Amino acid sequence: MESVKTRPGMARAVLASLARIWAADIRFDDPRFASARLSDLGRIEAYLRSHMPMGTLLPPIFATERPRARDAPAPRLAISISTG
Fold it and tell me: What region, left, alpha or beta, does residue 30 occupy, with left being phi > 0 and alpha being psi -120 to 50 degrees?
């Protein structure tokens, strides 16, 4: 991948490919979709995950957590105000 990563349009093409894979809900570790291209894209996704700021979610994680968060009970916060 080193030889092609700086080619014009490569970043845009990789991100577009990842977006299509995420939209199709394809898992990189699923043997039904095993191919060299998906393996390379899986390595790129792993690199992105390891270099993103803490707390940043990539689309597949966000998509799987969003329905669960909607069904979660509302948080109960105890707020106390002291005057003095």
Answer: beta
CA 45, CA 15: separation in Å to the nearest integer? 10
DSSP string, 5-52: TTSTTHHHHHHHHHHHHHHTT--TT-GGG--HHHHHHHHHHHHHHHHS
Q: Report how far residue 79's alpha carbon sits from residue 13's, in angstroms, rounded to the nearest whole number.
A: 49
pTM: 0.58
54-59 contacts: CB < 8 A, separation 24 or more?
A: 58/22, 59/19, 59/22, 59/23
Per-residue model confidence (pLDDT) at position 28: 80
